[in-house]
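Researcher: We plan to redesign the surface later, but first we want a full-length starting point. Tokens attached.
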């Protein structure tokens, strides 16, 4: 409560500074905002179709909110990008230069703004050159001329138009365009405000067109490059695929391969049959050879002479040759289907072979003399058998030659087809890889085309749902808000300055600050004379203060030495704090009450000489003056900053009162002097008494001071935070005597 009351009094003390300073700041803000520019607000709504738009992408059945938000952010950033805003700046400048009128406002630009803009460009170093670029008949031609004129240098007028601080065409001005998404929908709100209604309206209108063009250029540019890449790759891989297929076809033609798998299967089947037949031929050859050798051992000399007969040998060779040919033809006929042609060839040979056999039998019969051998075997049968075996041997020998030749042919086929198969597989793998690459590239190409078509549909859905409208009335200015904020800031600023001063200030001023700075309890306060409307009550207030000081001191007169009076020491750290005056007032008050009061003051050297040996070595007040006939002794010592008070005098007193003016600061010297005095006082009571205080400080000790009007009573009640106290009718007091009677 104490601090609340203190803060309330602090506000009351600086009330005029707060009121005057706040009013001055408010008036200054009101005067400075008298010429605030009017703002014209234009808004448009763009439908993007990102969330709910139709898509031909089969994977777009579920909405990816992260991708959707990213797309929305991209649209907003494209709309606010530097390239888009620069295009808007150039086109807006071209439109205003074409349609502006120096005498009359129109829907493009105010006449005042056009005059300033025209004079500015006309007086620039490049003015004539820029004015020559303005084609009144074509806005697009003018824009093209201005863009071709732009150079990234500080002296280029059109380049500086966007990069400097022009109020309508610069980047800083166009950055005021706000683009926001409406909740979680497909809609974007685009708003802009400036001091020219025509420029504001045309800025948003141009921005809508430039945004759509910029978006299409970015998205189509990416997709077209991808499509061109995949198309070129598709043509390149297609050429490689056709070349590899043609090479495979030419290779098959060169190697005379029609169907490699079927042909190799047929060769494998022939090889299997050939191995079986080869075994049979080898068996027949070996068996006929062995039997022939065995039967030749049984022939006699005549039979052996038969073998050496030229005619017989000739016929035998003829028979052998026919047998070999017949065997060869029979082998070939077994592997072909033309049996009719084979019969026409074989039948004459077989008949000729039979005739040869008959001739061989006749010749053999001629050479054989006996019918039987010595073992009793029929010679005719042996020779006949020998002839048959010889023919079989020749036949087997001929078939073996044929088989050997066929084996060589079959081995050649294996040597031919083995690398052909590897090469075919290698080429087929290469073709398959190229084909897969072709199909993959083709799919990517089709996906890119699908993506482009999807973008075309998306771009088609981006349209201005609510086009901008030309503003007729300006938006309300923020002058009232500015004045209110300035007033509040002024109030808080002044309050903050005084609070800072209050925190740093070391003036004693009141009881709370006195206790905080000195560390002593407050005995009371004595008011400074009022100079205004309350000056007629000064005497009454001073009497109340003296009365309170008397009662506060008297409560400590509870013990004294026998033969000694009650002793009060008046001390101060500085000269001029009012000890003498207060001691005189207190002496006067007690004397009126009939008390015997003695006063010793340093102002009278005959009473107290601070520089004398007697004072410096005094152990009691009796060393300074006679005290037998006194009830109370008031001792006013010299200020402590330059003088010392004997310790015994301080400890002998019933109460030590440190007088300090409330309107002076408490210095570090005062702090050190007081600390020394506290040590000297020891256990004796020591209090701070404030002199020359404000009325409200005295009221903390005496209660409400006169006059006792109803308004002052209520103000006093509020200052004491008696918020729910019952209100009473004020009593108008006529005199101090009446108060004392009422108190009794």
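Model: Full-length starting sequence:
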């Amino acid at each position: 409560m104490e601090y609340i009351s203190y803060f309330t009094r602090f506000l009351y003390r600086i009330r005029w500074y707060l009121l005057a300073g706040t009013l001055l700041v408010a008036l200054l803000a009101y005067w400075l905002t008298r010429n605030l520019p009017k703002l014209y607000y234009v808004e448009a709504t763009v439908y993007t179709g990102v969330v709910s738009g139709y898509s031909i992408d089969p994977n777009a059945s579920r909405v990816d909110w992260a991708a959707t938000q990213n797309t929305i952010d991209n649209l907003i950033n494209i709309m606010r990008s530097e390239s888009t805003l620069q295009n808007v700046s150039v086109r807006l400048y071209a439109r205003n230069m074409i349609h502006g009128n120096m005498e009359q406002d129109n829907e493009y630009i105010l006449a005042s703004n056009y005059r300033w803009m025209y004079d500015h460009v006309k007086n620039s170093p490049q003015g004539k050159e820029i004015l020559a670029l303005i084609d009144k008949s074509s806005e697009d031609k003018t824009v093209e001329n201005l863009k071709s004129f732009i150079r990234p240098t500080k002296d280029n007028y059109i380049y500086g138009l966007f990069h400097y601080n022009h109020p309508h065409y610069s980047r800083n001005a166009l950055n005021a365009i706000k683009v926001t998404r409406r909740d979680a929908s497909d809609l974007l709100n685009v708003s802009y405000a400036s001091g020219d209604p025509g420029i504001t309206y045309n800025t948003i209108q141009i921005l809508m067109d430039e945004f759509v063009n910029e978006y299409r250029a970015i998205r189509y540019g990416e997709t077209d490059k991808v499509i061109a890449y995949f198309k070129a790759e598709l043509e390149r891989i297609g050429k490689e695929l056709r070349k590899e297929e043609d090479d495979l076809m030419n290779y098959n033609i060169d190697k005379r391969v029609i169907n490699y798998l079927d042909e190799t299967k047929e060769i494998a089947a022939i090889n299997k049959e050939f191995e079986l037949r080869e075994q049979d031929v080898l068996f027949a050859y070996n068996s006929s050879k062995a039997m022939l050798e065995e039967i030749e051992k049984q022939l006699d000399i005549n039979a052996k002479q038969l073998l050496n007969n030229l005619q017989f040998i000739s016929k035998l060779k003829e028979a052998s040759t026919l047998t070999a040919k017949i065997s060869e033809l029979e082998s070939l006929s077994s592997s072909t289907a033309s049996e009719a042609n084979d019969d026409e060839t074989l039948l004459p040979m077989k008949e000729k072979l039979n005739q040869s056999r008959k001739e061989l039998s006749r010749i053999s019969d001629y050479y054989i003399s006996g019918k039987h051998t010595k073992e009793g075997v029929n010679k005719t049968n042996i020779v006949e058998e020998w002839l048959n075996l010889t023919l079989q041997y020749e036949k087997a020998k001929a078939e073996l030659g044929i088989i050997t030749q066929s084996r060589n042919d079959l081995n050649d086929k294996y040597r031919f087809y083995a690398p052909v198969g590897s090469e075919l597989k290698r080429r087929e793998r290469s073709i398959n890889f190229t084909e897969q690459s072709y199909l993959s590239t083709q799919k990517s190409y089709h996906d890119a085309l699908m993506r482009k078509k999807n973008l075309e549909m998306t771009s088609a859905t981006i349209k201005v749902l609510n086009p901008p409208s030309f503003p007729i009335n300006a938006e309300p200015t923020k002058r009232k808000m500015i004045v209110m904020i300035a007033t509040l800031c002024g109030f808080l600023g002044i309050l903050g300055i005084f609070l800072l001063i209050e925190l740093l200030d070391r003036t004693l001023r009141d009881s709370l600050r006195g206790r905080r700075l000195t560390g002593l309890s407050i005995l009371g306060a004595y008011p400074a004379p009022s100079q205004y409307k309350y000056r007629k009550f000064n005497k009454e207030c001073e009497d109340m203060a003296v009365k309170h000081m008397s009662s506060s001191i008297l409560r400590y007169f509870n013990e004294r030495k026998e033969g000694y009076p009650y002793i009060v020491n008046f001390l101060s750290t500085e000269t001029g704090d009012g000890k003498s005056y207060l001691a005189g007032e207190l002496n006067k008050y007690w004397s009126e009450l009939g008390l015997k009061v003695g006063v010793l003051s340093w102002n009278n050297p005959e009473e107290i000489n601070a520089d004398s040996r007697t004072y410096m070595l005094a152990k009691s007040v009796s060393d300074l003056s006679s005290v037998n006939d006194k009830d109370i002794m008031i001792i006013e010592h010299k200020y402590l900053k330059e003088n010392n008070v004997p310790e015994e005098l301080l400890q002998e007193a019933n109460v030590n009162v440190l007088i300090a003016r409330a309107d002076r600061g408490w210095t570090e010297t005062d702090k050190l002097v007081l600390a020394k005095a506290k040590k000297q006082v020891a256990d004796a009571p020591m209090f701070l008494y404030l002199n020359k205080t404000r009325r409200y400080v005295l009221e903390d000790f005496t209660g409400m001071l006169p006059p006792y009007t109803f308004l002052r009573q209520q103000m006093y009640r509020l200052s004491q935070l008696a918020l729910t106290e019952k209100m009473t009718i004020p009593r108008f007091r006529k005199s101090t005597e009446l108060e004392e009677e009422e108190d009794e």
